[in-house]
């Protein structure tokens, strides 16, 4: 009988332990798993875990084979939990269409086309709230300055001042993405 503590340090001790218990562990795993490749992987995982845990083995808590079966049970249970998580994840995405190469190309084109709008939005984040609201309504939402003034509850001259200031701030950031007054009224 091999001393358990030695299997983590001595390759010969591990080989003797492995030879002594491989058949029983293979049967244990094979009763719980129907894929031969998975069974082989799990069996190997059991013995790797045994090497790692060998230093903590206590003979007064049970026999070496009982200890090894406990490790095998933990390894198989962990695999079943991993497999169940994988199945749940697959169920969550089942029925959802995966992106094709054409979908990705269209999305990349759309993202590229919206780059200037993203830059404008980032720059607009730096504007005072009143100027930002005025600019959003006119430049992004397409309202006339008169309609935007009505939405904001301000007079048209105040709206024009806010738009002028917002455009000036954005120009100072080298962003020429905002429509000019001529473009806004057309």
TrEMBL record:
GO biological process: DNA-templated transcription initiation
Key words of the record: DNA-binding, Sigma factor, Transcription, Transcription regulation
Residue ranges occupied by any RNA polymerase sigma-70 region domain in the UniProt entry: 17-85
Entry GO MF terms: DNA binding; sigma factor activity
Annotated InterPro entries: RNA_pol_sigma-70-like, RNA_pol_sigma-70_dom, RNA_pol_sigma70_r2, RNA_pol_sigma70_r4_t2, RNA_pol_sigma_r2, RNA_pol_sigma_r3/r4-like, WH-like_DNA-bd_sf
Pfam family, one: Sigma70_r4_2
Domain of life: Bacteria
Domain RNA polymerase sigma factor 70 region 4 type span(s) in chain numbering: 118-170
Annotated family: Belongs to the sigma-70 factor family. ECF subfamily.
Protein known as: RNA polymerase sigma factor
Native source species: Kribbella antibiotica
